[in-house]
Automatic annotation (TrEMBL):
Pfam families, alphabetized: ABC_tran (PF00005)
Keywords: ATP-binding, Nucleotide-binding, Translocase, Transport
Database matches in SMART domains: AAA (SM00382)
Highest rank taxon of the organism: Bacteria
Summary of the function given for this chain in its UniProt record: Part of the ABC transporter complex HmuTUV involved in hemin import. Responsible for energy coupling to the transport system.
Protein name (record): Heme ABC transporter ATP-binding protein
Residue intervals of the ABC transporter domain: 2-240
A GO MF term: ATP binding
Organism annotation: Sneathiella litorea
PROSITE patterns cross-referenced by the UniProt entry: ABC_TRANSPORTER_1, ABC_TRANSPORTER_2
Length: 254
């Protein structure tokens, strides 16, 4: 279980997160939703240890995140960031094998290569394995990067997966495939999955719980299907009630 307790984070005089509390459970997929610039990615970085909050703490299975060594962290959690710029012509397969770096001293290169191949197949990208990564389309690159992060925690039951807008470049079919795979991995490997996303339809159908971040604060944490409703969406995104009802009223009605 991952717990954020009273997280506060500022850049200069700009307070981005204020007293954020949230809990993320193994075997569950949780969405982080909210307007542009609200602090979703910043919160995700606090959860992964990339940023250290000014106040408050993040605990992973009861232990402060910053007490874990980098090696321990690299085996307990994998992170897919919003941007992963790579200009060197590594092949797609080489990119995915990089996810296996935390195990490079333990496993033979062959088995890491096999895991990378399996991960590529799972994201429908095995046929791209020998292509130079920079020549791939945006959606192909996103799938290869997702294969890299799942290969990083391949054999780690109870690990965590943090995804920042993982479907932003994907077509409808690959959005569905990726989020279905996330659900399966979460259940079968007891993963704690946290996804920052903008697509409320996907969040409704593909996540168990959701939080909303707005103006540095957080609300929610209950079932996505109970929270992604017209009145709440209207308030969080400052949308006219009629528009929210048209977009999220009938479609998501009980
Ligand atoms: N390094 C930085 N320097 C200055 N401001 C920053 C920095 N990083 C983030 N911010 C600001 O912090 C706020 C929160 O940014 P963050 O990326 O967490 O938002 P977000 O909710 O993920 O947004 P989006 O939905 O647009 O991706 C924004 O106003 C952003 O401009």
């Amino acid at each position: 279980m991952i717990t954020a307790e009273n997280i506060t984070y500022s850049i200069g005089s700009h307070r981005i997160l204020a007293n954020i509390c949230a809990t993320f459970n193994p075997g569950r997929v949780t969405a982080i939703l909210g307007p542009n610039g609200a602090g979703k990615s910043t919160f995700l970085k606090c959860l992964t240890g990339a940023l250290k909050p000014d106040e408050g703490s993040v605990t992973v299975d009861g232990r402060d995140l910053h007490q874990y060594s980098l090696t321990e962290l690299s085996r307990r959690r994998a992170v897919l960031s919003q941007a992963n710029p790579i200009s060197f012509p590594f092949t797609a397969h080489e990119i995915v094998v990089m996810g296996r770096n935390p195990y490079s001293l333990e496993k033979t290169t062959a088995s890491n290569a096999e895991i990378a191949d399996e991960a590529l197949a799972l994201v429908d990208a095995w046929h791209l394995r020998d292509r130079a990564f920079p020549t791939l389309s945006g959606g192909e690159q996103q799938r290869v990067q997702f294969a890299r992060v799942i290969s990083q925690i391949w054999e780690q039951e109870g690990a965590s997966l943090f995804l920042d807008e993982p479907t932003s470049a994907l077509d409808l079919k690959h959005q569905h495939q990726l989020l279905e795979l996330v659900q399966i991995l979460s259940t079968e490997k007891n993963l704690t999955v946290v996804i920052v996303m903008h697509d409320l339809n996907l969040a409704y159908y593909s996540t168990d719980h959701c939080y909303f971040i707005k103006d540095g604060g957080i609300q929610g944490g209950e079932d996505s299907k109970d929270l992604i409703k017209a009145d709440i969406i209207s308030e969080i995104f400052d949308l006219p009630k009629e528009y929210a009802a048209m977009r999220f009223g009938g479609q998501f009605a009980d």
